[in-house]
Amino acid sequence: MKKVILFDAFSFVGYGLCCRMIDKEIHVIGVDAPPKENSPEEDKMLRIGRNAFFEFIESAKAIGNENMFMQSDAVIYPWYNPMTSERNEKKGESLQSVLEYCNDTKTKLILISAHTFSRNTKHELEDELDDNWYAKIKMNNSLCEHQKVRTKNIEFLFTFIDFSNKELKEAINKKNDHEEWIFQNFYG
Q1: Per CATH, is 3-185 categorized as 3.40.50?
Q2: Phi, psi of 14 (to 5 degrees)
Q3: Which of 31, 92, 116, 172 is most enclosed, with most CB atoms within 10 A?
Q4: Where are the domains of the chain?
Q5: Sheet arrangement for strand 154-161
Q6: pLDDT per residue over 134-146, tens digit each?
Protein backbone atom coordinates (compact mmCIF):
# COMPACT_ATOMS: atom_id res chain seq x y z
CA MET A 1 0.00 0.00 0.00
CA LYS A 2 1.18 3.48 -0.83
CA LYS A 3 -1.72 5.67 0.31
CA VAL A 4 -4.49 4.99 2.83
CA ILE A 5 -7.39 6.86 4.35
CA LEU A 6 -7.47 6.30 8.10
CA PHE A 7 -10.69 7.28 9.85
CA ASP A 8 -10.62 8.14 13.56
CA ALA A 9 -6.92 8.95 13.21
CA PHE A 10 -6.52 10.27 16.77
CA SER A 11 -8.35 7.40 18.48
CA PHE A 12 -6.58 4.67 20.43
CA VAL A 13 -6.41 2.24 17.50
CA GLY A 14 -6.25 4.85 14.72
CA TYR A 15 -3.28 6.69 16.17
CA GLY A 16 -1.39 3.44 16.79
CA LEU A 17 -1.90 2.40 13.16
CA CYS A 18 -1.11 5.88 11.86
CA CYS A 19 2.28 5.99 13.61
CA ARG A 20 3.25 2.54 12.31
CA MET A 21 2.21 3.30 8.73
CA ILE A 22 4.06 6.63 8.71
CA ASP A 23 7.16 4.79 9.97
CA LYS A 24 6.78 2.47 6.97
CA GLU A 25 6.49 5.51 4.65
CA ILE A 26 2.86 4.91 3.76
CA HIS A 27 1.03 8.17 2.98
CA VAL A 28 -1.79 8.47 5.52
CA ILE A 29 -4.81 10.73 5.09
CA GLY A 30 -5.95 11.03 8.70
CA VAL A 31 -9.67 11.70 9.08
CA ASP A 32 -11.07 12.85 12.42
CA ALA A 33 -12.82 15.73 14.14
CA PRO A 34 -10.62 18.81 14.59
CA PRO A 35 -8.81 18.34 17.91
CA LYS A 36 -9.74 20.63 20.79
CA GLU A 37 -7.05 22.89 22.18
CA ASN A 38 -4.86 21.27 24.88
CA SER A 39 -6.50 17.86 24.38
CA PRO A 40 -4.82 14.44 24.00
CA GLU A 41 -6.01 14.49 20.37
CA GLU A 42 -4.22 17.81 19.80
CA ASP A 43 -1.03 16.29 21.25
CA LYS A 44 -1.33 13.39 18.81
CA MET A 45 -1.95 15.80 15.92
CA LEU A 46 1.14 17.81 16.84
CA ARG A 47 3.28 14.65 17.03
CA ILE A 48 2.39 13.42 13.55
CA GLY A 49 1.02 16.52 11.82
CA ARG A 50 4.34 17.77 10.45
CA ASN A 51 5.32 14.43 8.95
CA ALA A 52 5.49 14.43 5.14
CA PHE A 53 3.55 11.14 5.07
CA PHE A 54 0.57 12.54 7.02
CA GLU A 55 -2.29 14.72 5.82
CA PHE A 56 -5.26 15.70 8.03
CA ILE A 57 -8.83 16.10 6.78
CA GLU A 58 -11.82 16.90 8.98
CA SER A 59 -14.46 14.16 9.15
CA ALA A 60 -17.22 16.33 7.71
CA LYS A 61 -15.15 17.14 4.60
CA ALA A 62 -13.92 13.57 4.10
CA ILE A 63 -17.30 11.83 4.06
CA GLY A 64 -18.40 13.77 0.96
CA ASN A 65 -15.07 13.52 -0.91
CA GLU A 66 -15.33 10.64 -3.39
CA ASN A 67 -12.17 11.85 -5.16
CA MET A 68 -10.17 11.18 -1.99
CA PHE A 69 -11.38 7.56 -2.04
CA MET A 70 -10.43 7.13 -5.72
CA GLN A 71 -6.84 8.21 -5.03
CA SER A 72 -6.29 5.74 -2.17
CA ASP A 73 -5.26 2.10 -2.05
CA ALA A 74 -7.32 1.32 1.05
CA VAL A 75 -9.60 2.78 3.70
CA ILE A 76 -9.00 1.79 7.31
CA TYR A 77 -12.02 2.25 9.55
CA PRO A 78 -11.64 1.70 13.31
CA TRP A 79 -15.18 0.89 14.38
CA TYR A 80 -15.72 -0.58 17.83
CA ASN A 81 -13.16 0.74 20.31
CA PRO A 82 -12.81 -0.02 24.04
CA MET A 83 -12.03 3.57 24.97
CA THR A 84 -14.80 5.41 23.12
CA SER A 85 -18.13 3.63 23.45
CA GLU A 86 -20.06 6.86 22.74
CA ARG A 87 -18.27 7.17 19.39
CA ASN A 88 -19.10 3.60 18.38
CA GLU A 89 -22.69 4.47 17.55
CA LYS A 90 -21.73 7.52 15.47
CA LYS A 91 -19.09 5.49 13.67
CA GLY A 92 -21.67 2.87 12.73
CA GLU A 93 -23.85 5.54 11.15
CA SER A 94 -21.10 6.99 8.93
CA LEU A 95 -19.87 3.53 7.94
CA GLN A 96 -22.69 3.17 5.40
CA SER A 97 -21.36 6.16 3.41
CA VAL A 98 -17.83 4.77 3.56
CA LEU A 99 -19.06 1.38 2.28
CA GLU A 100 -20.81 3.07 -0.64
CA TYR A 101 -17.76 5.18 -1.59
CA CYS A 102 -15.46 2.17 -1.38
CA ASN A 103 -17.86 0.20 -3.58
CA ASP A 104 -18.11 3.02 -6.16
CA THR A 105 -14.33 3.50 -6.32
CA LYS A 106 -13.38 -0.20 -5.87
CA THR A 107 -11.20 0.72 -2.87
CA LYS A 108 -10.29 -1.90 -0.24
CA LEU A 109 -11.88 -1.40 3.18
CA ILE A 110 -10.43 -2.66 6.45
CA LEU A 111 -12.74 -2.62 9.48
CA ILE A 112 -11.05 -2.77 12.88
CA SER A 113 -12.54 -3.33 16.31
CA ALA A 114 -10.76 -3.72 19.63
CA HIS A 115 -11.57 -5.05 23.08
CA THR A 116 -9.58 -4.93 26.33
CA PHE A 117 -9.36 -7.91 28.68
CA SER A 118 -8.52 -6.05 31.86
CA ARG A 119 -8.91 -2.65 33.42
CA ASN A 120 -5.54 -1.24 32.42
CA THR A 121 -4.97 2.48 32.10
CA LYS A 122 -5.11 4.05 28.66
CA HIS A 123 -1.33 4.66 28.84
CA GLU A 124 -0.63 0.98 29.58
CA LEU A 125 -2.81 -0.09 26.67
CA GLU A 126 -1.15 2.36 24.27
CA ASP A 127 2.23 0.84 25.21
CA GLU A 128 0.98 -2.44 23.70
CA LEU A 129 0.60 -0.86 20.26
CA ASP A 130 4.20 -1.49 19.28
CA ASP A 131 5.89 -2.91 16.19
CA ASN A 132 5.17 -6.49 17.29
CA TRP A 133 1.44 -5.74 17.25
CA TYR A 134 1.58 -4.05 13.85
CA ALA A 135 3.72 -6.82 12.36
CA LYS A 136 0.94 -9.35 13.06
CA ILE A 137 -1.48 -7.52 10.79
CA LYS A 138 -1.49 -8.74 7.20
CA MET A 139 -2.83 -5.55 5.57
CA ASN A 140 -2.08 -6.66 2.02
CA ASN A 141 -3.61 -10.10 2.41
CA SER A 142 -7.07 -9.81 0.89
CA LEU A 143 -7.40 -13.60 0.79
CA CYS A 144 -8.05 -13.59 4.54
CA GLU A 145 -11.37 -11.85 5.15
CA HIS A 146 -11.24 -11.82 8.97
CA GLN A 147 -8.14 -11.74 11.12
CA LYS A 148 -7.78 -11.68 14.90
CA VAL A 149 -4.71 -10.14 16.53
CA ARG A 150 -4.17 -10.41 20.26
CA THR A 151 -1.72 -8.63 22.53
CA LYS A 152 -1.38 -9.12 26.28
CA ASN A 153 -4.52 -7.13 27.15
CA ILE A 154 -6.21 -6.32 23.84
CA GLU A 155 -7.90 -8.36 21.12
CA PHE A 156 -8.48 -6.90 17.66
CA LEU A 157 -10.66 -8.07 14.81
CA PHE A 158 -9.77 -6.99 11.28
CA THR A 159 -12.23 -7.53 8.45
CA PHE A 160 -10.91 -7.03 4.92
CA ILE A 161 -13.38 -6.16 2.17
CA ASP A 162 -11.92 -6.05 -1.35
CA PHE A 163 -14.40 -4.17 -3.53
CA SER A 164 -12.57 -5.15 -6.72
CA ASN A 165 -14.35 -8.51 -6.44
CA LYS A 166 -17.33 -7.75 -4.17
CA GLU A 167 -20.60 -5.93 -4.60
CA LEU A 168 -22.11 -3.62 -1.98
CA LYS A 169 -24.52 -6.29 -0.73
CA GLU A 170 -21.63 -8.71 -0.07
CA ALA A 171 -19.69 -5.95 1.69
CA ILE A 172 -22.65 -5.19 3.94
CA ASN A 173 -22.83 -8.91 4.80
CA LYS A 174 -19.12 -8.84 5.74
CA LYS A 175 -19.74 -5.74 7.88
CA ASN A 176 -22.64 -7.53 9.58
CA ASP A 177 -20.43 -10.61 10.17
CA HIS A 178 -17.84 -8.33 11.78
CA GLU A 179 -20.46 -6.73 14.01
CA GLU A 180 -21.95 -10.09 15.00
CA TRP A 181 -18.49 -11.41 15.93
CA ILE A 182 -17.87 -8.28 18.03
CA PHE A 183 -21.07 -8.71 20.00
CA GLN A 184 -20.49 -12.44 20.54
CA ASN A 185 -16.85 -12.15 21.57
CA PHE A 186 -16.42 -8.67 23.04
CA TYR A 187 -19.76 -7.99 24.69
CA GLY A 188 -21.27 -11.47 25.09
Answers
A1: yes
A2: -60, -45
A3: 31
A4: 3-185
A5: 54-58, 27-32, 3-7, 74-78, 108-116, 154-161, 146-150
A6: 666 665 555 457 7
